[in-house]
Amino acid sequence: xxxxxxxxxxxxxxxxxxxxxxxxxxxxxxxxxxxxxxxxxxxxxxxxxxxxxxxxxxxxxxxxxxxxxxxxxxxxxxxxxxxxxxxxxxxxxxxxxxxxxxxxxxxxxxxxxxxxxxxxxxxxxxxxxxxxxxxxxxxxxxxxxxxxxxxxxxxxxxxxxxxxxxxxxxxxxxxxxxxxxxxxxxxxxxxxxxxxxxxxxxxxxxxxxxxxxxxxxxxxxxxx
Amino acid sequence: xxxxxxxxxxxxxxxxxxxxxxxxxxxxxxxxxxxxxxxxxxxxxxxxxxxxxxxxxxxxxxxxxxxxxxxxxxxxxxxxxxxxxxxxxxxxxxxxxxxxxxxxxxxxxxxxxxxxxxxxxxxxxxxxxxxxxxxxxxxxxxxxxxxxxxxxxxxxxxxxxxxxxxxxxxxxxxxxxxxxxxxxxxxxxxxxxxxxxxxxxxxxxxxxxxxxxxxxxxxxxxxx
Lengths: 224, 224
Prior knowledge:
The structure is a homodimer. In chain A, the strands form two sheets. Chain A has a seven-stranded mixed sheet, sandwiched between helices. A two-stranded antiparallel ribbon of chain A has the order 8-9. By secondary structure, chain A is of the alpha+beta class.
């Protein structure tokens, strides 16, 4: 009888513990949201170079992924923050980038595309063909890529729009040197007054780079 | 007698007119301030390329400067806005720029220095010596310039802090190609949460680039 009671007590304690845990998590969620909202829309600044750490868990979405690689684990860096913001896309990713050769950023874009996120890329005409460029790879995977049409002009932007509401912009090209060696900055914001002009600029560049708007030019009898 | 009265009336009208004018100007000032404050701190986005227009009036501070140059006058562009923000410095200008060869931006920096504004520049080691670089010119004028110490790293930032409270940042290097040809963006903001990290980054880079902290290295009996 005494054993039956203690079993009941144990169940009660476990039940109450579970309820307390769920309530605690909900309260923490509310607190985080409240604290974030009380400071207005997201504003974050990331500086580079960023130390090399394992970012495997960001791709698998399993926070405790038992990765065996030799890099440090469980460390947050500017690069892991950047990657996390990009991988938070659920609907769309609009990317305007001058130079794109970073393998993990390419992997992130390919993963988003596979998950059904609509990815659009505008890039530079010259830099898209340099050795190591990931533009060919993402294009082959079915991602829509357009490039600056004029050979005399560089498309030098380095910004991305996540779900049309989170702006990621700065000096950082999507290269390994930029991420791991250079002094660079990236700003992440959901401030509407800042996001809106970049949305408009992306749309403008996307339409201006539409090959359908550019007829092949004929000079000296040759097509260009 | 009638003539004397009308002279008095004239003086009254003129006096009242002057008072009304002063009050009107004050009210407009208040309205501008109120409208600006109601939208929060300054947030502005500029896109490039920027068409070439006369910016002489920004240097002379005489709005109606009778400039005889053939460029369009009285037109506001992304470049004139950028120049205006830089020339609004009264106390200090902290500049972190990868490539600096734009003559008018150099002229602006030299003018600020002449006016007693404390100008500090951090730049890239390789790019400071390329043909057309203005780094030598501003250094010769007495402006303090420091550069990235490592040959393996690029100081790729392109940001400026005006009076420590207005941040100008983006993809734009201080070159004629960037201003007049490339697709570029510049953000200008006084949002404290964005300005503060850039202030700290500037101070960090300024101290890290102090030649006093770097002893000359001796390899194979030669000084580097």
